[in-house]
Specification:
Blueprint: H1 9-12, H2 18-25, H3 45-56, H4 60-72, E1 84-91, E2 98-102, E3 107-112, H5 118-129, E4 131-135, H6 139-153, H7 169-179, H8 189-195, H9 202-210, H10 233-242
Parallel strand pairs: 1-4
Antiparallel strand pairs: 1-2, 2-3
Helix pairs in contact: 4-5, 7-9, 8-9
GO molecular function: methylated-DNA-[protein]-cysteine S-methyltransferase activity
Keywords: DNA damage, Methyltransferase, Transferase
GO biological process, one term: DNA repair
Protein backbone atom coordinates (compact mmCIF):
# COMPACT_ATOMS: atom_id res chain seq x y z
CA UNK A 1 0.00 0.00 0.00
CA UNK A 2 1.32 3.42 -0.96
CA UNK A 3 -0.57 6.39 0.43
CA UNK A 4 1.15 8.68 -2.08
CA UNK A 5 0.07 6.63 -5.13
CA UNK A 6 -3.42 5.29 -4.58
CA UNK A 7 -5.13 3.65 -7.57
CA UNK A 8 -8.04 5.33 -9.37
CA UNK A 9 -11.03 2.98 -9.03
CA UNK A 10 -12.86 4.66 -11.91
CA UNK A 11 -10.11 3.64 -14.32
CA UNK A 12 -9.35 0.21 -12.87
CA UNK A 13 -12.64 -1.41 -11.84
CA UNK A 14 -14.54 -3.54 -14.38
CA UNK A 15 -17.63 -2.22 -16.15
CA UNK A 16 -19.97 -3.72 -13.58
CA UNK A 17 -18.64 -1.28 -10.96
CA UNK A 18 -18.03 1.78 -13.13
CA UNK A 19 -20.75 3.87 -11.50
CA UNK A 20 -19.43 3.06 -8.05
CA UNK A 21 -15.81 3.58 -9.14
CA UNK A 22 -16.64 7.01 -10.57
CA UNK A 23 -18.41 7.99 -7.36
CA UNK A 24 -15.57 6.73 -5.15
CA UNK A 25 -12.95 8.55 -7.21
CA UNK A 26 -14.74 11.85 -6.56
CA UNK A 27 -14.87 11.38 -2.77
CA UNK A 28 -12.03 13.16 -0.99
CA UNK A 29 -13.11 11.73 2.37
CA UNK A 30 -15.33 8.68 1.76
CA UNK A 31 -17.48 7.32 4.57
CA UNK A 32 -16.37 4.18 6.37
CA UNK A 33 -19.99 3.00 6.39
CA UNK A 34 -20.85 1.17 3.19
CA UNK A 35 -24.49 1.96 3.80
CA UNK A 36 -23.61 5.53 2.80
CA UNK A 37 -22.14 4.40 -0.54
CA UNK A 38 -24.41 4.48 -3.61
CA UNK A 39 -24.56 1.90 -6.42
CA UNK A 40 -23.94 -1.07 -4.09
CA UNK A 41 -25.92 -3.17 -1.64
CA UNK A 42 -25.20 -5.63 1.15
CA UNK A 43 -25.69 -8.42 -1.41
CA UNK A 44 -23.24 -7.02 -3.98
CA UNK A 45 -20.60 -5.77 -1.51
CA UNK A 46 -18.70 -9.09 -1.24
CA UNK A 47 -18.35 -9.28 -5.03
CA UNK A 48 -17.22 -5.66 -5.17
CA UNK A 49 -14.56 -6.28 -2.54
CA UNK A 50 -13.29 -9.36 -4.39
CA UNK A 51 -13.10 -7.49 -7.70
CA UNK A 52 -11.48 -4.46 -6.08
CA UNK A 53 -8.72 -6.59 -4.58
CA UNK A 54 -8.20 -8.46 -7.84
CA UNK A 55 -7.84 -5.19 -9.78
CA UNK A 56 -5.80 -3.13 -7.30
CA UNK A 57 -4.07 -5.61 -5.00
CA UNK A 58 -5.63 -3.75 -2.07
CA UNK A 59 -8.59 -4.44 0.16
CA UNK A 60 -11.39 -1.93 -0.37
CA UNK A 61 -11.50 -1.25 3.39
CA UNK A 62 -7.81 -0.33 3.33
CA UNK A 63 -8.25 1.87 0.26
CA UNK A 64 -11.00 3.85 1.96
CA UNK A 65 -8.93 4.24 5.13
CA UNK A 66 -5.98 5.55 3.11
CA UNK A 67 -8.18 7.96 1.17
CA UNK A 68 -9.38 9.36 4.47
CA UNK A 69 -5.80 9.63 5.75
CA UNK A 70 -4.77 11.35 2.52
CA UNK A 71 -7.55 13.89 3.04
CA UNK A 72 -6.41 14.62 6.59
CA UNK A 73 -2.83 15.02 5.42
CA UNK A 74 -3.65 17.45 2.61
CA UNK A 75 -3.28 21.20 2.86
CA UNK A 76 -6.71 21.59 1.22
CA UNK A 77 -8.41 21.87 4.61
CA UNK A 78 -8.42 25.64 4.15
CA UNK A 79 -11.59 25.93 6.20
CA UNK A 80 -9.73 24.67 9.26
CA UNK A 81 -9.13 26.93 12.25
CA UNK A 82 -5.57 25.65 12.45
CA UNK A 83 -2.74 27.72 11.02
CA UNK A 84 0.36 25.84 12.21
CA UNK A 85 1.65 22.94 10.12
CA UNK A 86 3.30 19.64 10.94
CA UNK A 87 5.44 17.83 8.39
CA UNK A 88 4.20 14.50 7.01
CA UNK A 89 6.37 11.88 5.35
CA UNK A 90 6.08 8.34 4.01
CA UNK A 91 8.74 5.91 5.21
CA UNK A 92 9.71 2.59 3.63
CA UNK A 93 10.04 -0.56 5.73
CA UNK A 94 10.25 -4.33 5.15
CA UNK A 95 6.77 -4.60 6.68
CA UNK A 96 5.01 -1.97 4.59
CA UNK A 97 4.85 1.78 4.35
CA UNK A 98 4.94 3.93 7.48
CA UNK A 99 3.54 7.39 8.11
CA UNK A 100 5.65 9.91 10.03
CA UNK A 101 4.47 13.21 11.50
CA UNK A 102 7.13 15.62 12.74
CA UNK A 103 7.21 19.02 14.36
CA UNK A 104 10.26 21.26 14.52
CA UNK A 105 10.98 19.72 17.95
CA UNK A 106 10.84 16.06 16.97
CA UNK A 107 8.79 13.05 15.89
CA UNK A 108 5.12 13.22 16.94
CA UNK A 109 3.91 10.02 15.31
CA UNK A 110 5.25 7.01 13.42
CA UNK A 111 2.82 4.26 12.41
CA UNK A 112 2.46 1.51 9.83
CA UNK A 113 -0.29 2.72 7.51
CA UNK A 114 -1.76 -0.79 7.37
CA UNK A 115 -2.65 -0.55 11.06
CA UNK A 116 -6.22 0.27 11.94
CA UNK A 117 -6.71 3.31 14.16
CA UNK A 118 -4.14 5.51 12.42
CA UNK A 119 -6.83 8.06 11.50
CA UNK A 120 -7.93 8.51 15.13
CA UNK A 121 -4.32 8.87 16.26
CA UNK A 122 -3.65 11.41 13.52
CA UNK A 123 -6.67 13.41 14.67
CA UNK A 124 -5.39 13.28 18.25
CA UNK A 125 -2.05 14.72 17.11
CA UNK A 126 -3.87 17.42 15.14
CA UNK A 127 -5.99 18.44 18.14
CA UNK A 128 -3.04 18.50 20.52
CA UNK A 129 -0.76 20.45 18.17
CA UNK A 130 -3.54 22.62 16.67
CA UNK A 131 -1.98 22.12 13.26
CA UNK A 132 -2.59 21.00 9.71
CA UNK A 133 -0.25 18.62 7.87
CA UNK A 134 1.92 19.08 4.82
CA UNK A 135 4.00 16.57 2.86
CA UNK A 136 7.52 17.94 3.18
CA UNK A 137 11.04 17.00 4.20
CA UNK A 138 12.52 18.65 7.29
CA UNK A 139 15.76 18.07 9.23
CA UNK A 140 13.86 15.92 11.76
CA UNK A 141 12.15 13.95 8.97
CA UNK A 142 15.47 13.41 7.17
CA UNK A 143 17.15 12.16 10.36
CA UNK A 144 14.24 9.81 11.06
CA UNK A 145 14.35 8.46 7.50
CA UNK A 146 18.08 7.77 7.76
CA UNK A 147 17.86 6.14 11.19
CA UNK A 148 14.88 3.96 10.22
CA UNK A 149 16.76 2.73 7.14
CA UNK A 150 19.76 1.79 9.29
CA UNK A 151 17.53 0.15 11.90
CA UNK A 152 15.89 -2.08 9.29
CA UNK A 153 19.34 -2.91 7.88
CA UNK A 154 20.36 -4.08 11.37
CA UNK A 155 23.10 -1.47 11.85
CA UNK A 156 21.28 0.88 14.25
CA UNK A 157 20.54 -0.19 17.82
CA UNK A 158 19.45 3.10 19.41
CA UNK A 159 17.63 6.05 17.87
CA UNK A 160 18.94 9.56 18.30
CA UNK A 161 16.13 11.50 16.63
CA UNK A 162 14.24 13.76 19.04
CA UNK A 163 10.67 13.00 20.06
CA UNK A 164 7.75 15.39 20.48
CA UNK A 165 5.15 12.95 21.74
CA UNK A 166 1.43 13.50 22.11
CA UNK A 167 -0.01 12.05 25.30
CA UNK A 168 -0.60 12.67 28.98
CA UNK A 169 2.02 12.44 31.73
CA UNK A 170 1.02 8.90 32.64
CA UNK A 171 1.48 7.72 29.06
CA UNK A 172 4.75 9.59 28.66
CA UNK A 173 6.25 7.97 31.73
CA UNK A 174 5.28 4.52 30.44
CA UNK A 175 6.70 5.34 26.99
CA UNK A 176 9.93 6.56 28.56
CA UNK A 177 10.23 3.26 30.43
CA UNK A 178 9.82 1.38 27.14
CA UNK A 179 12.71 3.32 25.57
CA UNK A 180 15.01 1.84 28.24
CA UNK A 181 14.42 -1.73 26.99
CA UNK A 182 17.61 -2.61 25.10
CA UNK A 183 17.55 -3.63 21.46
CA UNK A 184 16.75 -7.32 21.06
CA UNK A 185 15.42 -7.74 24.60
CA UNK A 186 11.91 -7.81 26.07
CA UNK A 187 10.21 -6.82 29.31
CA UNK A 188 6.84 -7.60 30.85
CA UNK A 189 4.33 -5.07 32.11
CA UNK A 190 5.14 -5.98 35.72
CA UNK A 191 8.88 -5.54 35.11
CA UNK A 192 8.35 -2.04 33.72
CA UNK A 193 6.09 -1.17 36.63
CA UNK A 194 8.76 -2.35 39.07
CA UNK A 195 11.36 -0.31 37.20
CA UNK A 196 9.16 2.73 37.80
CA UNK A 197 8.70 1.69 41.45
CA UNK A 198 4.93 1.58 40.81
CA UNK A 199 3.80 -2.01 41.05
CA UNK A 200 0.13 -1.00 40.68
CA UNK A 201 0.78 0.55 37.26
CA UNK A 202 0.78 -2.59 35.10
CA UNK A 203 -2.62 -1.84 33.57
CA UNK A 204 -1.56 1.74 32.79
CA UNK A 205 1.60 0.47 31.09
CA UNK A 206 -0.40 -2.05 29.07
CA UNK A 207 -2.80 0.71 28.01
CA UNK A 208 0.07 3.04 27.09
CA UNK A 209 1.63 0.31 24.94
CA UNK A 210 -1.61 0.09 22.97
CA UNK A 211 -1.80 3.88 22.70
CA UNK A 212 1.78 4.37 21.54
CA UNK A 213 1.76 6.65 18.48
CA UNK A 214 5.49 6.29 17.78
CA UNK A 215 6.24 2.74 16.73
CA UNK A 216 9.79 1.34 16.86
CA UNK A 217 11.39 4.44 18.44
CA UNK A 218 9.22 3.92 21.52
CA UNK A 219 9.64 0.14 21.29
CA UNK A 220 6.34 -1.24 22.54
CA UNK A 221 7.15 -4.31 20.40
CA UNK A 222 9.67 -5.21 23.12
CA UNK A 223 6.89 -5.40 25.72
CA UNK A 224 5.67 -8.96 26.26
CA UNK A 225 1.96 -9.35 25.65
CA UNK A 226 1.77 -6.57 23.06
CA UNK A 227 1.30 -8.97 20.13
CA UNK A 228 -2.48 -8.98 20.49
CA UNK A 229 -2.46 -5.19 20.04
CA UNK A 230 0.04 -4.86 17.19
CA UNK A 231 0.47 -7.44 14.45
CA UNK A 232 3.93 -5.99 13.75
CA UNK A 233 5.38 -6.66 17.23
CA UNK A 234 6.53 -10.21 16.49
CA UNK A 235 8.04 -9.22 13.13
CA UNK A 236 10.05 -6.40 14.71
CA UNK A 237 11.35 -8.64 17.49
CA UNK A 238 12.38 -11.25 14.92
CA UNK A 239 14.23 -8.58 12.94
CA UNK A 240 16.20 -7.62 16.04
CA UNK A 241 16.89 -11.26 16.90
CA UNK A 242 18.25 -11.89 13.39
CA UNK A 243 20.81 -9.17 14.05
CA UNK A 244 22.40 -11.41 16.68
CA UNK A 245 20.72 -10.16 19.84
CA UNK A 246 18.98 -12.17 22.52
CA UNK A 247 15.19 -12.22 22.65
CA UNK A 248 14.86 -11.76 26.38
CA UNK A 249 16.88 -10.63 29.38
CA UNK A 250 16.40 -9.87 33.07
CA UNK A 251 14.95 -6.48 33.95
CA UNK A 252 17.62 -3.75 34.15
CA UNK A 253 18.47 -2.04 37.45
CA UNK A 254 16.05 0.74 38.34
CA UNK A 255 18.69 3.38 37.69
CA UNK A 256 19.55 2.06 34.23
CA UNK A 257 18.54 4.09 31.18
CA UNK A 258 19.59 3.48 27.60
CA UNK A 259 17.85 6.41 25.95
CA UNK A 260 18.14 10.13 26.45
CA UNK A 261 15.71 11.16 23.74
CA UNK A 262 12.65 11.18 25.96
CA UNK A 263 13.19 12.71 29.41
CA UNK A 264 10.73 11.46 32.02
CA UNK A 265 7.91 13.93 32.73
CA UNK A 266 7.19 15.34 36.15
CA UNK A 267 3.96 15.77 38.08
CA UNK A 268 2.70 12.29 37.22
CA UNK A 269 -0.62 10.92 38.33
CA UNK A 270 0.45 7.41 39.32
CA UNK A 271 0.89 6.59 43.00
CA UNK A 272 3.68 4.44 44.30
CA UNK A 273 2.53 1.28 46.04
Amino acid sequence: MDILNLPDPERILPERWQAYGAWLSRQANPSLAYGDHPHISADTLPDLKNDFHACTGMDLDDYIRLRRLSFLLSRSQSHSQYRAELAAGAMDSPFGQMLAICSEKGVCMLKFIAQKGVESELLAVQREKQALFGWRETPVMAQLRDELARYFQGSLREFGVALDLVGNDTQREAWHAMTTIPYGETRGYAQLAAQLDKSNATRHIAAAAGQNKTAIIVPCHRVNGHDHISSFAAELRQLEQRSGNTAAAPAPPAESTSSSILPPPTGLGWRKS
